[in-house]
Amino acid sequence: MTQVRTRFSPSPTGALHLGGAHTALFNWLYARHFGGVFILRIEDTDRERSQEKFVEEIQESLRWLGLNWDEGPYRQSQRLDIYHEYVKRLLDSGHAYCCDCDPEDLETRRQAALAKGEKPRYNRRCRERGLAPGPGTAVRFKTPETGTTHWQDRIKGHIAFDNQELDDLVIMRADGIPTYNLAVVVDDITMRVTHIIRGDDHISNTPRQILIYQAYGVDPPEFAHMPLMLGKDRTKLSKRHGALPVLAYREQGILPQSLNNFLARLGWSRGDQEIFSMAELIEYFDLDHVGKSPGVFDQEKLLWLNSHYIKVTPPRELAALLTPFLAAIGVENPDPDYVARIVPTLNKRSKTLVEMADAARFYFLDPRPYDEKAAKKFLTPASVPLLRETAARLSALQELSEESLTDLLKDICADKGCKLVDLAQPVRVALTGKSASPSLTELIPILGKEECLRRLNNAINSVAES
Ligand code: GLU
Predict the structure, then answer these.
(1) Of 18, 130, 171, 323, whose CB has the highest number of CB atoms within 10 Å?
(2) Distance separating alpha carbons of residues 431 and 448, to the nearest angstrom
(3) For residue 57, how far is its CA from the centre of ligand 1 (angstroms)?
(4) What is the pLDDT of residues 299-321, one digit of tens each?
(5) Domain 79-226 superfamily per CATH
(6) Assigned CATH for 5-77+229-284
(7) pTM, rounded to two decimals
C-alpha cells in the first residue's frame, strides 16, 4: 500500500479559525492513523491578501493544538518556477492555450451575463488562435466541451459534473501568477498527496482539478469533502455564533485537548463515545465514519469538555498550563510545586483556566479588599468571637491535616453552639475574600498556619474598623 500523504493548505489571509482547524485535524488524524505524512502548505499566491503575520499565527495555532507537520511549510510563492514549468507542459501538449482577451472587456461581458441572469462564461475566443506566450497573455485550460467529470468522494459519495459547465478557466494570469486550481494540482502531484480532505465549499473546484490531473496523465488522489461547520441556528458559522480564531480559545483558557476532542466529534463519530484521548482519536479515526451532514458548533459542549479535561489532567501538567493565566492576574513565577498543590482543590469547579486562575487568586495574593457582599454578610461583630476562637485553636494545632481541621471546626461549633456554616463562612471570607472557595480543610494546609493566622487577624481588625 502506498504511504498516506495528506496536507493542510491554508491561505494566510486571516487567522486560523475553527473551520480551518477542523480540516487540519482531520488531515492530521488520517495521516497519523495510517502512519503517513502530514504536510503543511501555505497558499500565498494572492500577494495582496496574504500576510506574514497570519503565516505565523496559523503555525502557532497548529503547534498549540499539537498538530505537528512532517513536511513544510511549503510556500506557493516560492514555487512559481515549478508552476511555470507545469503550465508549459500543458501548452506543449495542447491542453492549454494563451489568451490575450482584454480583462476589462471580459469583465463587461461577465457583468452583462449576470445582469441577464445567465451564468458568466468565457466565449473561448482565443481557444483555437494558437497565440504564443508573451506579455499580457494569460493561459487558459482547454476544458473538454462534452462529457462528464466524476469521482467517488470518500464522504459525499458519487459526484459528477457536466464538462460543459466548467468553462475554460484561467490557470495562469497575465502577470505569471498561477491560479488556485493549477497551483493546488501541481502541488498535490509533486508532493505526492494521496488524500485531499477539505471543506465541501471546494466541491465545485474538484472537477476542474481532476481534468488538470488527467491532462498531466496522473491519477487524481482520493477526495473527501467535509461538511462545513454550522452555527446553532444552522447558518454558516461566524463570530455571531461565538466562534473565534483558534488562539482566542487558548486565551480563554481552553485546553488544546478539549478543542481537538470537540472538533473531532464534529462530523465524525464512534458509537456514542464523546471523550477521546489523542491516542484514541488516532487509533479510531477514519473517513468512513464522517457524516454527510454538518456538525453544529456548540459552545456549551466545548466548555463541558474543557471542564472534563481540567479535571483529569495530572496536576503538574495542568499547573504548567495554568501558570501563564496566573501571570495575567499578577502572580509572576509561582513555585511549580505550590501550583501543583492547589490544582486539585480547584479543578472540579473550573470550566476554563481563566476561571481557575481567578479562583486561585487568594492562594497567592492578600484577599483584601474582600468581596463587598460577602464581607457585609459574614464579617460582622457577631462573627468576631468565632474568628478569634478559630485563630486560637489553629495556632495551637500541631499538624494541619483535613482530619485535624475537620475536628477543629466541629469542636468550635459544639462549644459555641453554632452551625458549621455560621463558622465556615466568616472564616472563608477572612481567608479567601469570597463566600465561595475550595473547602477550608483543603485550603488551610496549603496557605499554611502563619498566613491563615495573619488573615484571620486582618479580618477581625477589619470588623473593628468598620
Ligand atoms: N487554500 C485553500 C483554502 O484555504 C485550500 C485548498 C485546498 O484544500 O485544496 O480554502
Answers:
(1) 171
(2) 11
(3) 17
(4) 999 999 999 999 999 999 999 99
(5) HUPs (3.40.50.620)
(6) 3.40.50.620
(7) 0.93
